[in-house]
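Support reply, case 0932

Customer input (verbatim):
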Amino acid sequence: HRWRVLEELMLNTIRLTVAALTLVCLPAIGQAANNPVKRTEDLVRAFKAVKPIPDDGSDLSASDRKANAASFSGLDAYFDWDTLTSASIDIHKTKFKAAELTEFKTTLKDLIRLVAYPGGGTFFQTAQYKLKAGKEKRKAKRVDVEMFAELPEEDLETTVTYHWQEIGGALRIVDVSFDGASLMKDYRAQFGRIIGKHGVDGLMNKLRKRHKKEKSSGLL
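Our regenerated output:
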């Protein structure tokens, strides 16, 4: 149950009003582009401002969807999408045709956004969390920031580790771990099993089906 909750919050495993994004978050990103703890704090604030689908299942208003479009665009700057969409199939790339690989990366990116952005927003609105400031772990080009988080109502406790790497002049997320378990390694294992059993076509069909479902949610 704990893993299902975490994966749905951060992506099945790895959703800022317009004013907040424009006036608060974007300047903060520039000022803290290479400060891993500040960068993580800004990421959390960005997540918390995403507007989720109401609990009663009603549609978001047009203004809320417009705000979410801006929020999603702002959150995109925190992630290294090339790594996040490539690492999960790195040992299987030769099995993909060029068009399939392009579609895979585009679809996976959008699916992560549609699940992780609102899921992260919901999580941080209710969770109690604390960053372990001053205890960042550096290894080669990466720096890890740990966060202890709990959801008392769910009887859930976890340590979330954000794996940052400087890319394009700013720190960007290349992986997220829950209690030491890498989201990218989990994706790699899941996708590898599907490819092994159903081939690339089987994987693409599953991604398309899930993407269609999330796309119809009305977040944007």
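We compared this against your earlier run and they match. Two observations from our side: The first strand starts at residue 128 and ends at 131. The mean pLDDT is 85. Please reopen the case if you see a mismatch on your end.
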